[in-house]
Design goal:
Helix content: 25-40%
Strand order of the largest sheet: 1-7-6-4-5
Number of helices: 12
Shape: globular
Order of helices and strands: EEHHEHEHEHEHEEEHEHEHHHEEH
CATH topology of the largest domain: Peroxisomal Thiolase, Chain A, domain 1
CATH superfamily of the largest domain: Thiolase/Chalcone synthase
Distance between the termini: 43 Å
Bound molecules: coenzyme A
CATH class of the largest domain: Alpha Beta
């Protein structure tokens, strides 16, 4: 069999319309715009409206990515959804998304690796493609963390935002795709970012509800120390494993959790600011959605080109971390919108 590669052929995003600024938060809790900007780099975040679900925002992002790749739902071989904020604990949200997309009988699973989930998903998708098992995979990172945040806790509520991002990975004969990756976990730090109740350790009870234990608890300082310790090293390792140097990275697209953490990782490998993509000021931390949303925005801003080498790095609850060096295919042609066949099929379905 000829050597196979896995190219990223489409991407898409969905961010809710509603924006909550730091000034809005000043009215809710004891905080200030200045504190939030200085310590995190966040100015505003998008928050879903009542009734919007993780499956809905995932489908919106997925449709955009599929349109860019020129795919119909039945062209998909697998759907991987990275999220820590699914519609339900059971069933998996990946199956809701499969159904809503109309990807009949396509395999779908949900992957939980905190904010590092999207990079874990991307690397997993690549393995299915390299093995020859599948040709076309949809990878989604989607979160509605706002539903799990205690809006009276200034340690957490200022940090997070909602959104979804998606990419399509497809088999290719052109050398490209994930050139190297690092996946890591250290569960000894679990208590630093945790939603205590609702699982098997502390099932839902009147007491867990009264004590508000179904919301995120975070030891920010410990998470910060962990992230600055791990991220730079993971990025350096991934670049080295790819046989590259920092000079070869066209754009660094990190998980957008804290501008200071991003700077520290970039400094560790000597990446100058013009090769770092940052949009945390407008979205806050959208967890597993942050890298695919940032990829879309970087592309919209003309900062991603065919043949570019990108570096992704993320960390999150677990504690987990992940880094990947990804080369985009050069020969990828912009795909036309789905043609008359797809339009006819959708018209027939409606009828
Ligand atoms: N507004 C104003 N003051 C705040 C505040 C807020 N929103 N949140 C915390 N503070 C206060 C603290 O109470 C503390 O006050 P004290 O000194 O009187 O106790 C002070 O600010 C400093 O807190 P500290 O935790 O040392 O600040 P920090 O510089 O570490 O920044 C974080 C706090 C949360 C921004 C930072 O630790 C961080 O980003 N950690 C990583 C979190 C993360 O990325 N989580 C998601 C993982 S995917």
């Amino acid at each position: 069999m000829a050597q196979r590669y896995a190219d990223i052929t489409g991407w898409g995003k969905y961010v809710p319309e509603r924006v909550i600024t730091n000034a809005d938060l000043e009215k809710l809790i004891d905080t200030s715009d200045e504190w939030i900007i200085q310590r995190t780099g966040i100015r505003e975040r998008h928050i879903v409206s009542e009734g919007q679900t993780t499956s809905q925002i995932s489908v919106a992002a997925a449709r955009e990515a599929m349109e860019m790749a020129g795919l119909r739902p039945r062209d998909l071989d697998l759907i991987i959804v990275a999220t820590s904020s699914p519609d339900y604990l059971t069933p998996p949200v990946s199956a809701q998304i499969q159904d809503m997309l109309g990807a009949k009988d396509v395999g779908a699973f949900t992957l939980v690796a905190g904010c590092a989930g999207f990079v874990y998903g991307l690397v997993t998708a690549q393995q299915f493609i390299l093995s020859g098992a599948y040709d076309t995979i949809l990878v989604i990172g989607a979160e509605i963390i706002s539903r799990f945040v205690d809006w009276t806790d200034r340690n957490t509520c200022v940090l997070f935002g909602d959104g979804a991002g998606a990419v399509i990975m497809q088999a290719s004969d052109e050398p490209c795709g994930v050139l190297s990756f690092v996946l890591g976990a250290d569960g000894s730090g679990a208590q630093h970012l945790i939603m205590p109740a609702g699982g098997t350790v502390m099932p839902t009870s009147q007491e867990t509800l009264d004590r508000n234990l179904h919301t995120l608890r975070m030891n920010g300082r410990e998470v910060f120390k962990f992230a600055t310790r791990k991220l730079g090293k993971a990025l350096e390792q991934a670049i080295r494993q790819a046989g590259l140097t920092t000079e070869d990275i066209d754009l660094f697209i990190p998980h957008q959790a804290n501008a200071r953490i991003i700077e520290s990782a970039a400094r560790h490998v000597g990446l100058p600011s013009e090769r770092i993509f940052v949009n945390i000021d407008r979205y806050g931390n959208t967890s597993a959605a942050s890298i695919p949303i940032a990829l879309c925005e970087a592309a919209e801003a003309g900062r991603v080109h065919p043949g570019d080498t990108l570096a992704f790095v993320a960390f999150g609850a677990g504690l987990t971390w992940a880094a990947a060096v990804v080369k985009l295919g050069k020969h990828r042609k912009p795909h036309p919108k789905p043609g008359w066949r797809a339009r006819l099929a959708s018209w027939l379905r409606r009828g």
